[in-house]
Each structure stands twice: as C-alpha cells, then as structure tokens.
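Format notes (please read before filing issues)

Several people have asked whether sequences and structure tokens are stored in separate files. They are not. Every record keeps both together, in the order shown below: the sequence lines, then the token lines. Line labels are part of the format and must not be stripped during preprocessing.
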Amino acid sequence: MADGSLAQFKATLARKMARKEKAQGKFDRKKMGFKNSGEKEEFDFPKLSESELEKVKSEIREKFKVERRNNLILLGLIVIIAIGILLYII
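Then the structure lines:
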C-alpha cells in the first residue's frame, strides 16, 4: 500500500456515511409521529351525476383559462418593459 491510502479510505467512508445520514434526514421519524403504513389513503368524495361532473369540469377549465390569460398578459408586460429598458440603454 502506498502512503496515505488508509487515510484516503477512511475519508471515503466518512463521506459515504455523511451522505447516508443526510439522505435519511435529521430527525427520527418514528419518534415524531410520522406514519407510513404503505396503505393508500381513501377519500370520501361525494358522488356526482354526469351533469354535475360536467359542470365542475367546465368551471375548472374556465378558471384555468382565466389564469392562463392573466399569466400571458403579465408575461407580455414584462417582455415589453424589458425591451423598453434595453432600447433605452442602447
């Protein structure tokens, strides 16, 4: 063995342990009350008829359409302001 190989090996093991501890997290999940039984949670959603379901879907689509339009307007304003600043600087 070359000089320092044991020290390098120990340093490698220390780095490996540090990565493992970081990946596991800082706190013990069992003591903090976390539960992970592996079972999928079931939700009790109300049963909707076809017409009610279509109404809910259309409301969600309309809400996203308005949000998308607002985001595009905001993006357009930002681009116009940025171009204006660039033209003023040049």
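For reference, the curators noted about this record: The mean pLDDT is 86. Helices lie at 5-24, 50-89.
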